[in-house]
Amino acid sequence: MAPLSWAGAGFGQVLASGRRWLRAGAGFGQALASGGRDFGKVQMDQDLLDRAMAATTAEGTLAHRMGIRIVSASGAEVVATMPVAGNTQPFGLLHGGASCVLAETIGSLGAALHAGLGRVVVGIEISATHHRGAKDGEVTAVATLAHGGRTLVTFDIVITDSAGRRVCTSRLTCMIRDQVPGNGAAPLVEGAGPLGTDAGPLENRE
Prior knowledge:
Layout: H1 11-16, H2 28-33, H3 46-56, H4 62-65, E1 69-73, E2 77-83, H5 96-115, E3 120-130, E4 138-148, E5 152-160, E6 166-177
Antiparallel strand pairs: 1-2, 2-4, 3-6, 4-5, 5-6
């Protein structure tokens, strides 16, 4: 699986555009769970989180083309919806691959929020069990953190139909790295630009 990409600009750029000072090394899950209180000098306001969620489904991404909408997100849980229409197989049922895309989209977002600045996540394994078909309406996916380490993070994802019946159970494991594999870019750290570009320090950046 390819490294997690955020609408071409990089998730680091989305985060670096915020006005608050962010220090690499602590997970955003802690900051979000704190309700805004400081954990390890990591702060994240709602505007910054909104931008991160928007980048996940930005125009040009597969998630956008499939109509995936992020409802809420943190390093511990991500919730999203996806329409059945437009994502079906020839028999008119929700395509199993669409369920996998939905699962990996929100699991990867949760993993990135858990990892925090200066790190990237790469999906290394996904599994899915398809329990029943969905013909119409939308499905809802909930990704719950099953394991959150420094180098590996795993999310369990449950997808249900509009009647609350389980459609799919998936599990995604991502590897957390300090730089993007294959391109030699440095991680986003204090004083460095997004993914190693020279964009200046993070503090007071508009």
